[in-house]
Design brief:
The protein contains 23 helices and 28 strands. About 4% of the residues have low confidence. It is an alpha+beta fold. The chain is elongated, with a radius of gyration of 35 Å. The strands form nine sheets. The protein has a five-stranded parallel beta sheet, sandwiched between helices. Strands 8-15-14-13-16 form a five-stranded mixed beta sheet, with no helix packed on it. Strand 11 and strand 12 form a beta hairpin. Helix 3 packs parallel to helix 4.
Length: 755
């Protein structure tokens, strides 16, 4: 008759610096259990056996309750011994548990903190020697630990829990603490690969090469390169057609037009890629679906007018619905998008809209520097662009055509620059944005003139004025990052957890206080990502390691002074006078402040970069583990230059951008997980995003020297203020998207070395 097996619980105690040893103990106990079939073993480790959550009492009290139910205590000690480990040892002695203690041998201390910890370990050893009640052993590595624990447990269990006569035990000589893996069919392959490592590495490189080239091809196959150089733009003054348009522009459809009155020799310092095709309905729908899965508000905000219009008339006006429904076919250009919609899509793709100069250079690329009115010459020719049947066109029906149709016209490999869809171009300043190219329902001899410019509001709630508006994408040849990535840290594309951690007590408290006490400062805290979710970053990016310094911003202003043609109305020069006249307040290495959003954005563009987005800044602060602060989840007052930071007597309230704040007790610092300095504290930092329907405002993040960063420095915190704000606690740093770029020369060099 089988008797029920006896349960033996073994508690594993140690500081947190022995994770590998704690895991190996579980394996050892499993092997020992095979020698004692009459016993059932249960290993207790607090990290796996104590449920997470909030308790009315100390969490250690809950751990101690588990220890009370155990028969054996395995106690491991390395370079330090924590107060809770000592508490567990004393409780085990008091409860007369069987105790095994193992000290790991280690080199001498390398710093003051380690020396202090070692003293506590030696004091504990001396206490054991004096009591002479508990024996201890030492080990150097995992193998020694396995041997000693296996031997000690077997001897104790045989005496304390002898087997019944009917119980069958394995003989002692069959013990294998960690069984060797069985030979399988992969072993010969692994042996071959190890023996032929050059061939193996070459194969891996070849696979990476194929993947890299395919990614490069997918990215650039639908792009056309326009090289750097000098280009003539504008108009010839002796054109009869332009004279006619200028005189009659107020009476023409889609008026008013703005026609350049003079020619301009434009120096394009850097080549760029421009899309062969306008963005299609299919491509834009993918963008909308990505928004819908994350943020329904943004999905509704960026829905094109044509989609909204068809949703409205589907039931009440089925005939009208059936007429316009074909406009949403996959390969037709997306229509009815606002400027903000186009910018949002471009950022999602890691690109931008072509600016006015880029668009015109591309449109003239068949006849560069000839100042022709149309891509094909000075006379309008019907039938080679998708414009209306007016002006002699023989087309029977006015409608958009597929973006890759030869009927839309081809200029230097670029389809549909004239007609089909009006195209938004990047317009930095003002409430209106520029439109180029004309559309399918406009007279080609009017809308098709290359340097014809029209303007519309960037934002329009009902979007009724955007019926014909589409766009295409562009990206600079260097992808904005090749020449100037020193001093920046790199972030891979991928999914990052951002937002509110449900299990975080601090964030839960913030949310509760915000809900019940809207008058407190916590009412300003924004939860941009709601509850924690994975944000998919499709394009890798760089972010500056340091905030922009006074010296660097002064260089920018000096450049603008020397080059008046590059001046911007949105950049204030008052700060330049202050920098020159108050050197004691504006030391060169301090973080620059008193800069508006427009001025910060202008500096970023001057450097070939941009301001970080909300998502990019949150990733830089929170990291892959979604921490609350750059250094972790626990507040570190010595790591952050905020209102409570105790400065030295000679320190300024704003610190140098490269200053290192270090807590010597915890070894935490102001340097984040990615290597960036002062992401929280010192100065708040402008971000690239604006709140929905509030274009005059922009977000900032990070907390400053002037406030409590324990709340305002949280990774999920951001707040919107007017873009023209110039405060002594707001600065900025730059970022840059890093679209995939093919690196054939690297592969060529590696293959040459190997083969």
């Amino acid at each position: 008759m089988n008797t029920p097996s006896k349960a033996v619980k073994i508690f594993v105690a140690s500081a947190g610096d022995l994770p590998d040893e704690r895991n190996r103990i579980v394996q050892i106990i499993h092997q020992v259990s095979k020698l004692h079939r009459h016993l059932t073993f249960d290993t207790v480790k607090w990290e796996t056996d104590i449920e997470s959550g909030r308790y009315d009492t100390r969490i250690q009290s809950r751990i101690n309750d588990e220890l009370n139910t155990c028969d054996i205590l395995l106690f491991l000690v390395n370079k330090r011994i924590g107060k809770f480990s000592l508490e567990e040892y004393k409780l085990a002695v008091k409860k007369k548990k069987k105790i095994f203690i193992y000290f790991q041998k280690f080199p001498s201390a390398s710093n003051t903190q380690e020396a202090a910890d070692l003293i506590k370990v030696f004091e504990f050893k001396e206490e054991l020697n004096k009591e002479n009640k508990t024996l201890y052993l030492e080990f150097e590595n995992l193998d020694q630990l396995e041997t000693k624990i296996t031997r000690d447990l077997n001897l104790f269990l045989e005496k304390a829990f002898p087997a019944d006569a009917d119980s069958k035990q394995l003989p002692a000589d069959t013990i294998t603490v960690v069984p060797k893996p069985e030979t399988n069919w992969l072993d010969p392959i692994i042996s071959f690969l190890r023996a032929n490592w050059k061939l193996t590495l070459s194969g891996i490189l070849l696979i990476l090469f194929i993947f890299d080239f395919s990614s490069y091809y997918r990215f650039y196959k639908n792009m056309v390169l326009i090289p750097a150089g000098e280009y003539m733009l504008g108009r010839k003054n002796d054109s009869p057609l332009l004279d006619f348009l200028e005189k009659n522009k107020d009476h023409l459809k889609e008026s008013p037009y703005i026609l350049e009155t003079d020619s301009l020799l434009y120096d394009l310092k850097e080549g760029f890629y421009i899309s062969k095709f306008e963005v299609t309905n299919k491509e834009y729908r993918e963008f909308l679906e990505s928004l819908k899965s994350k943020n329904n508000t943004q999905y509704i905000l960026h829905k094109p007018y044509l989609h909204i219009f068809l949703d409205t008339i589907q039931r009440k006006h089925p005939e009208l619905y059936n007429y316009f429904k074909p406009y949403l076919e996959d390969e037709l250009p997306v229509l009815g998008v606002s400027y903000d919609d186009a910018i949002a899509y471009a950022k999602w793709k890691g690109m931008s809209l072509p600016d006015s100069y880029q668009w015109e250079i591309a449109a003239r690329s068949n006849n560069p520097n000839q100042l022709t009115l149309f891509p094909w010459g000075n006379d309008f020719v019907s039938g080679i662009s998708n414009t209306s049947k007016k002006n002699g066109s023989k087309k029977k029906e006015v409608k958009p055509l597929p973006v890759n149709s030869s009927e839309v016209g081809i200029t230097h490999g670029i389809f549909g620059l004239i007609g089909n869809a009006d195209e938004w171009v990047y317009t930095e300043e003002g409430e209106t944005a520029e439109i180029r190219g004309g559309h399918f329902d406009i007279g080609g001899a009017v809308g098709g003139v290359i340097h014809n410019k029209r303007y519309k509001d960037k934002s329009d709630k009902d979007k009724t004025t955007y019926f014909y508006n589409g766009f295409r994408l562009a990206v600079r040849e260097s992808n904005a990052i090749d020449k100037n990535t020193s001093g920046m840290v790199f972030f891979k594309a991928g999914k990052y957890p951002l937002g509110y951690k449900i299990k975080s007590p601090l964030l839960k408290l913030c949310k509760e206080v915000k809900d019940v006490a809207p008058g407190t400062f916590l009412n300003q805290v924004v939860f941009p990502f709601a509850e924690e979710n994975k944000v998919n970053i499709k394009v890798p990016f760089y972010i500056d390691k340091y905030e922009v310094s006074v010296e660097k911003y002064e260089n920018f202003l000096n450049y603008l002074e020397r080059n008046p043609g590059h001046k911007s109305d949105n950049v204030s020069y008052d700060i330049l006078r202050e920098i020159r006249n108050q050197k004691e307040l504006f030391e060169p290495d301090l973080a620059v402040t008193g800069v508006s959003w427009d001025a910060a954005n202008a500096y970023a563009k001057w450097k070939g970069k941009k301001l970080p987005s909300v998502e990019q800044m949150a990733i830089a602060i929170a990291g892959p583990n979604n921490h609350l602060f750059p250094w972790g989840d626990n507040w570190c007052s010595k790591c952050c230059n905020d209102i409570n930071y105790e400065k030295e007597e000679n320190e300024t309230y704003i610190l140098p951008v490269e200053s290192l704040l270090l807590d010597k007790n915890t070894m935490q610092s102001c340097v984040s997980w990615c290597g960036a300095f002062h992401l929280t504290g010192n100065v708040k930092e402008w971000l690239d995003n604006s709140p929905p329907e509030e274009r005059k405002k922009a977000f900032f993040a990070g907390g400053s020297w002037k406030e409590n960063c324990q709340a305002f420095g949280l990774s999920f915190y951001n707040f919107a203020v007017d873009k023209d704000s110039q405060s002594d606690f707001i600065g900025f740093r730059c970022a840059a998207n890093a679209p995939h770029k093919f690196t054939w020369k690297i592969y060529q060099a590696l293959f040459a070395k190997l083969l």
